[in-house]
Amino acid sequence: MIQAIRGTYDVLPADVGVWHAIEDRLRQTFHVYGFGEIRTPMFEATELFIRGVGEETDIVSKEMYTFSDRDESKSLTLRPEGTAAVIRAYIEHQLYNEARMLKLYYIGPMFRRERPQKGRYRQHVQAGAEVLSNTDNPAIEAEVMEMLTKFLTGLGIPDLELSINSVGDRECRPPYIQSLKTEIRSRTDRLCKDCRRRGEKNPLRVFDCKVPSCQPVIAELPTITDRLCENCRSHFEKFKSYLIARDISFRVNPRLVRGLDYYTRTTFEITSGRLGSQNTVAGGGRYDGLSEELDGPPAKGFGFGMGLERLILSIPDTAHLVPDYQPEYFIAPIGDAAFDRATLLARNLRTAGKRVYVDFDARSLKSQMRLADKLGAKSVIIIGEEELKTGTVLLRDMSTKEQRNIREEEL
Predict the structure, then answer these.
(1) pTM for the complete prediction?
(2) What pLDDT sits at residue 117?
(3) Going by DSSP bridges, is the β-strand pair 75-78/43-45 parallel, antiparallel, or unpaired?
(4) Measured between alpha carbons, how far is 324 from 353 in angstroms, rounded to an integer?
């Protein structure tokens, strides 16, 4: 038997209602805050992610699904994250000419060859939002945090915590990186192999390490929060003041750097205590300069990504979210003539927007009633010999068990 590839999964009909509900709520929330949807291809030129995300990030160095086009003239990669693709589209279609501030969102599959865990898959669905403008006003970050926290609390997710940090900019980060390298080199004998490699090529990534033996060493390292230039410090203080004004609780985590090279200044994560060790629900940050890095015009950017699988796992009770897909009418015909009438009646009811199930198996009435009950049908329409003669149907309410003969028009 051929099975789904490791790290992938099927969303079955019994579960898909939750997905519809989450996606609908996301779209409603995005639209309230002025975001428009963008849909980019599921694969892009590999160069986009090497330049945009960073060659020394775990995503690019370990996790991407990369392959040659059939004529082997171009290297292609299944998109591992959404921001780089959105910026590529922003540049290619000159969306910067449409407005001084552009708000975009996406919902779609991403691909990373990670070790599959609960809530982490090699193909996963990610929702994200990007704000692109000519200003780095920290009120933009605060508004996105307001939107995101309002959405998550509205789903009833418990124990949410917002962690924030500033990772500096091109002025204050380079001298900090040099001092960080020096500190890491003096401790290489106590660090794992990956940390030793990152310490030379991309030292900020050391803070992403999850190896237990590395944590005491990481705790000794200097943090960029203490080395910010005046502009970055002022930006971070204003951001915090905007959060406080909106009654958004947060904690400053000076070792929060996120896993992508394009972040500048503000980074953030929202976690849930319900998820265990893999507890991040959403994360993101500011990425001023990414457009220029990809040969586009100067632009300031801020955004986030959120895995929907992990989001759904963090909701204690999803039953109240699920749309009602149960049949409003189950039509139970008895005999061939009744079946012919049932199919036409079903067509008329569906044209009127009703959810209708017709039994095609010529079962007994008793069997059909059991099936209607299993499907959760609100009402059963019984058509037998007597109903054919009188031009009526027998309507049975499945909750009260009351039934009466009515004409089709009354439905």
Answers:
(1) 0.87
(2) 79
(3) antiparallel
(4) 14
